[in-house]
């Protein structure tokens, strides 16, 4: 028995639809969206994205944990730096107050950034995130099997807390700094698509997920 010749048409073994869509992620999109409300088709093994409310509550827990230690350390160092000089009249009250505020701002930044860096580098989460079962993972690894590199951990912590360094400025500037902090760091994940990142996440290349 002879087989039909392919000279008059397409080869017998040709695909009926050479443009059929592939089920895999295209090479032009190395970082597909994570699982989460409104998203589908994420790679198997990915953890769902953290909700904004979960992230906010985790930060509030961290704030409650650090408030007394950071405040106490700032008070101690501030008194050591300007207390005796102010009492002895060596510096004016306004200068003493300004110096104290600068010291408090630097201490608050260092405590917060250090806390974030140590916890995320060691465990991938702070105490607040641990309570909410959230983890910081690299954007390039949806499975969460890879930890965030130390350099990115430090950058992420510094960006999130850098505005604290300006809390010693005038009340108007402090309010401006506060609003920038709220919009770009706290609220930005509410409308960021597709990975719900704050600006600190975007700079460091991270996302916050639920689990593991």
Automatic annotation (TrEMBL):
The keyword Membrane applies. It comes from the Bacteria. Keywords: Cell membrane, Membrane, Transmembrane, Transmembrane helix. InterPro entries: Pra-immunoreactive (IPR051791), RDD (IPR010432). The chain crosses the membrane at residues 63-84, 96-115, 168-191. It is found in: Cell membrane. Residues 1-30 are annotated as: Disordered. Residues 50-205 form the RDD domain. It is a multi-pass membrane protein. This is RDD domain-containing protein. It comes from Salinactinospora qingdaonensis.
């Amino acid at each position: 028995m002879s087989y039909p010749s392919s000279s008059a048409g397409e080869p017998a073994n040709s695909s009926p639809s050479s443009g059929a869509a592939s089920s895999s992620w295209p090479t032009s999109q190395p970082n597909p969206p994570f699982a989460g409300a409104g998203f589908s088709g994420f790679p198997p093994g990915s953890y769902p994205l953290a909700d904004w409310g979960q992230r906010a509550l985790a930060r509030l827990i961290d704030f409650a944990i650090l408030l007394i230690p950071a405040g106490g350390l700032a008070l101690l160092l501030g008194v050591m730096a300007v207390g005796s000089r102010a009492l002895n009249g060596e510096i004016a009250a306004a200068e003493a107050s300004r110096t104290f505020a600068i010291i408090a701002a630097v201490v608050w930044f260092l405590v917060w950034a250090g806390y974030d860096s140590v916890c995320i580098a060691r465990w991938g989460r702070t105490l607040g995130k641990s309570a909410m079962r959230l983890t910081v993972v690299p954007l390039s690894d949806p499975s969460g099997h890879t930890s965030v590199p130390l350099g990115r951990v430090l950058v992420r912590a510094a960006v999130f807390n850098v505005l604290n360094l300006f809390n010693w400025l005038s009340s108007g500037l402090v309010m401006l700094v506060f609003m920038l902090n709220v919009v770009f760091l706290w609220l930005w994940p509410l409308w960021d698509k597709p990975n719900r990142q704050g600006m600190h996440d975007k700079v460091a290349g991270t996302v916050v997920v639920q689990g593991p």
